[in-house]
Amino acid sequence: MSTTMTRPKTRKQRDKREQEMDRAVLIALRDSPQTFRTVRGLAQEIGAHEEEIRAAIGRNRQEVKRLSIPTQDGDSVYFLADRGLTFRDRLAVAKQYVLKSVP
Description:
Structural class: mainly alpha
CATH superfamily: Winged helix-like DNA-binding domain superfamily/Winged helix DNA-binding domain
Distance between the termini: 43 Å
Largest sheet: 3 strands, antiparallel
CATH topology: Arc Repressor Mutant, subunit A
Radius of gyration: 15 Å
CATH class: Mainly Alpha
């Protein structure tokens, strides 16, 4: 899905576009070798606008979770809830938390 899609004009086109975007985001999160993904990274991979990715994440709050600690750039990080966090993932999150809390 690397082609940039045009914005839909009718309600039916918009609904179809939202369904396609939801599916694309979930597939990108599921098939990624990285557990955590940013909106920017998902948008680049899918070929969509960041607003569309944020909307798709919002529509899929049961499946897509936000990590409590952002990247060093301040970007929110998302992952699939059913994919879970490995010990290594949890360790990385703990490390980021400690580094942020140290002055």
